[in-house]
Amino acid sequence: xSGFNCKHILGLRDIAREDICxxxxxxxxxxxxxxxPIKKVPALRGKxxxxxxxxxxxxxxxxxxxxxxYLSADTVSLSVSTSSVKKGESLIDTARTVxxxxxxxxxxxxxxxxxxxxxxxxxxxxxxxxxDGMNEHPTQALLDLFTIQEKKGKIEGxxxxxxGDILHSRVARSNIWGLKKLGAEVAVAAPSTLIPPEIEKxxxxxxxxxxxxxxxxxxxxVLRLQLERQExxxxxxxxxxxxxxCINEKRLNHAKDDVLLMHPGPMNRGVEISxxxxxxxxxxxxxxxxxGVAVRMAVLYLLAGGEKxxxxx
Amino acid sequence: xxxxxxxxxxxxxxxxxxxxxxVLIEAKTVVAIDKNISPDADTQVINAEGKLVxxxxxxxxxxxxxxxxxxxxxxxxxxxxxxxxxxSAVACMPNTNPVCDSKATVRFILDKARIFAKSKVYxxxxxxxxxxxxxxxxxxxxxxxxxxxxxxxxQPVMDAGVxxxxxxxxxxxxxxxxxxxxxxxxxxxxxxxxxxxSTILGLKGIPKAAEEIMVARDIILAKATKCRLHIAHVSTKxxxxxxxxxxxxxxxxxxxxxxxxxTLTDSAVEGYDTSTKVNPPLRSEEDxxxxxxxxxxxxxxxxxxxxxxxTAEEKKVxxxxxxxxxxxxxxxxxxxxxxxxxxGVLTPVQAVCKLTKAPADILKISGGFLTKGCTADITIxxxxxxxxxxxxxxxxxxxxxxxxxxxLKGAAVMTIVNGEVVFDSQIxxxx
Lengths: 313, 431
Fold this sequence. Notes:
The complex is a heterodimer of chains A (313) and B (431).
Chain A: H1 17-34, E1 48-53, H2 59-70, E2 74-79, H3 82-87, H4 91-100, E3 105-110, H5 115-120, E4 126-132, H6 138-152, E5 159-163, H7 170-181, E6 185-189, E7 205-207, H8 210-214, E8 219-222, H9 238-245, H10 249-252, E9 260-262, H11 275-278, H12 285-303
Helix pairs in contact in A: 1-6, 1-12, 2-12, 6-7, 6-12
Chain B: E1 2-12, E2 17-26, E3 29-34, E4 43-47, E5 52-55, E6 57-62, H1 75-84, E7 87-92, H2 103-116, E8 120-125, H3 139-145, E9 149-151, H4 160-172, E10 176-179, H5 184-187, E11 192-193, H6 196-201, E12 205-206, H7 208-225, E13 228-231, H8 237-248, E14 253-257, H9 259-263, H10 285-297, E15 302-303, H11 312-315, H12 332-341, H13 348-354, H14 357-363, E16 378-388, E17 407-417, E18 420-424, E19 429-430
Parallel strand pairs in B: 1-4, 1-5, 6-7, 7-8, 8-9, 9-10, 10-13, 11-12, 13-14, 14-15
Antiparallel strand pairs in B: 1-2, 2-3, 5-16, 16-17, 17-18, 18-19
């Protein structure tokens, strides 16, 4: 395989198609490793991964932690509440402190868009963006791409519908960049107040009627609706949102028969996705979680130097 | 001792002409403007060949940050930056701590300026007490102390009823109201222009309507009250069109544009450089073009920098947490000549007029033109000199400029205030 050209994973907007494919290919090998009874390899022995989370997260942090441990890296998790940051140390100073303790890879989640891009100018260690504000969540999109490829055998030419709060969603943005780079057609659907301006310039079809976006879809990716959107008058009520956008059996029938249903979690059952659909045979939601670990192992492995570190088996 | 500015192109902002003449200064006064004035033995000769000899430039929109925010800027450093940028006078905004809403604060600023300022300083006082948008200030008393205009810059007066009364009251005093047009409900917690770039950068957008709805409101109030209204930092095509129509309708409205709004678009926010975070935000291409068009056809009367200094630690944070504002005193002349004069948007005379006579007329302060007998506030501009912006050379305390590394053509090379040379690029002379 050719070399991996990324020093950081900040967003899929900045990652070339070849590097995305390389991550997906590596993730396949990683998934095989975590399917074994003894699911640990020494690839990142002696490397240190720090997860620095300025926002609450259970699954993403756990996923990164386990990914690093399965590769034998030493991991430390640091959760910082934004309130204590405001009176104390700046992000740049905190990150420099973490790096000064000989951290190799810094995994960071932050509520402000662009925070990892800002840090990049001050640090030498590799940075993995685990979600920054409304900007990007690249490893989520990579695991979505991996799941599509695994289930459908390809990505190019598929029709993917992304349903929900596109405006505030870093998952949507990363998915759009990745899917377009790999040749998929993308349709998005949301209430008009949750569609960001000029999103069509990214080459996506934009709908307010969810059925139109679902028409002929091979994949449906349902986004989590942040429950506080009602308070800021972006939607009148969760009830009306569910009436118009909840992905249920009836709506899913507009998509292809073999449609693949995904959700980044955690789900609001009965709001953006119905209970029966979430647990149906078409749902890959649990598989996504497993794939998340494999994809994050691939990202950590490639950033640490890939084959130069140690053979993974 | 006399000073003779020799062989420059003297800009006459009253007749909108430019002619090769000499200017003779004695003490604080211009005593002669004529062709081929011969120097006496004791006359200092300043060679201005190939340069523009202008009335001292006036920046009608500056934040000097004193009192209260002296870590960002002071009256001393802000006015030193001003004269290095070619400005012989600045009008300073009242969003200090305390807010400039009392005679005591106006006097404090003027007293400090008398001792420490390199340029002239004209305080702008608040429209409402504490700029809280509730009760109007003692405008007559503030004017008596030396305030030249009223503005709640940065804290728009959201209640139209309060603004209506403020304008009725200001009309009685023939005072000008300078409006920072922003509807807080629409701008909300936005940090950049709403559009393609806010979408791809995942930053909260400020719609153009946030500015335009207030421009429209204040124009309607100006029509109703006949008060003089000046719209600060016009940044959108819609705002330019609203002002153009209001002027056609004979409403008493003027406006200004800032160099960053005719130079940069919101694409500059890529990379999350917090020095591009400014309010109103950098807009789209069509807005930049409309601002230039407005400058060219006279809809936009004045050019003002909205110089807004912040400390490095305040700006070295995540984009959404950084304060709004960028500095402009030391790049304004270069940007005006590079982006407007060199590109044929304005003639040199028009450009200088927007930096001199226009702000002087709006604020009703002295200066803005050069004639025999007037005070010797003079700026000499070299329209051809090229340089690269290096924030480390700035005299301002702040470095928050989005123009670092940019090549500019044209710069102020000498600033004279009250007949005294306060800046000379040849010898970097400071007094």
